[in-house]
Amino acid sequence: MPSGFLALLDDISALVKASAASLDDIPAQIAKTTGKVSGIVIDDTAVTPKYVVGLDPSRELSIIYQIAKRSLINKLLILSPAALLLGYFAPWAITPILMVGGAYLCYEGYEKVHSMFSKHHEADSESEQMKEITPKELEKERVTSAVRTDIILSSEIMAIAYSQVTGQPIVNQILVMLAVAVFITVGVYGFVGLIVKMDDIGVHLARGNYNSFIQNIGRGMVKFMPRFLLILGYVGTAAMLWVGAEIIAHGIPFTSHLLHELEHALASVPAIAWFAKALACGISGILLGFLIDKIVKVVQKVFFNKNEAHTA
């Protein structure tokens, strides 16, 4: 009896040690997963500031908080459990879902590139829309639109996060998924909040009772922020196309092999290898987005004609 009890204690001790060793890997897994979703994070960061443009500056942080709160709830209560359940019951579905999301990112990226050539038309349309609704309604509409965009990007983030922990113990999977959800949401929307208030900080420094050096820094911040937001938008679009195309490429054995071959051929110069892969994915993303856009327009046209025929 005592020997059996001691054997049981040995088994429990071994299990605890194995669990502890497994848990020690979690920070590394979180770091690896965060790196994998960096492109989508950049895009999420670049996209969000546009939703507070034209609104009352005193409401900017409140709006960002609303978006961040709903984003975190979606990640923690909907997307993470969905990814874990899907991975358990239908793991074969993870890659196709990722590829669909990648196609959507390419489509959105292409739309952004296309919209760069029709900015004035979009600005006029938005101005007309702002005249027709109250500031409160506009704020609600912006938050809803931002959350709708965020849930697509968040779905990709959590799906990629899960793909990095498949085969790990369930406790590790849950902890990594939750940590990634919290870390990325706080990081993205904390940085977005800083971005949208940076011009206010600059104005405060420029007009405050500070020495001329600090005031010049404040003026420089105010002048630089519009350019920074423009650059951030371009970076976000590039990241969207790159990530979307890379997700799809890795889901197809042939294209995945080509990417690995490209990286291997330039492995002696890692920076060039990274740039070549990103460029190849970016160009492929634009082409794929163009193709999807044409398909969407054809489908819309067909359904519109059908609806007109039914109405007649």
Please give a structural write-up.
The protein has 312 residues and is mostly helical. It has a domain at 27-237. It has eleven helices and no strands. Helix 3 packs parallel to helix 8.
What general form does the structure show? globular
* Helical stretch tally: 11
Could you tell me the radius of gyration in angstroms? Answer: 24 Å
> Which structural class fits the helix and strand makeup?
mainly alpha
Calculate the mean pLDDT score and round it.
78
Q: Note the run of SSEs as H and E.
A: HHHHHHHHHHH
- As a percent range, the share of strand residues is under 5%
Helical content (DSSP H or I, runs of 4+): over 70%
Largest sheet: none
Low-pLDDT stretches are 8-24, 123-130
Number of strands: 0
The end-to-end distance, rounded to whole angstroms, is: 87 Å
Quick rundown:
By secondary structure, the protein is mostly helical. The chain has helices at residues 2-24, 26-36, 38-47, 60-89, 94-115, 119-132, 135-163, 170-207, 212-251, 253-265, 270-311.
Task: Note the main attributes of this structure.
mainly alpha; 312 residues
SSE blueprint and pairings:
Blueprint: H1 2-24, H2 26-36, H3 38-47, H4 60-89, H5 94-115, H6 119-132, H7 135-163, H8 170-207, H9 212-251, H10 253-265, H11 270-311
Helix pairs in contact: 2-8, 3-7, 3-8, 3-9, 4-7, 4-8, 5-7, 5-9, 5-11, 7-8, 8-9, 9-10, 9-11, 10-11
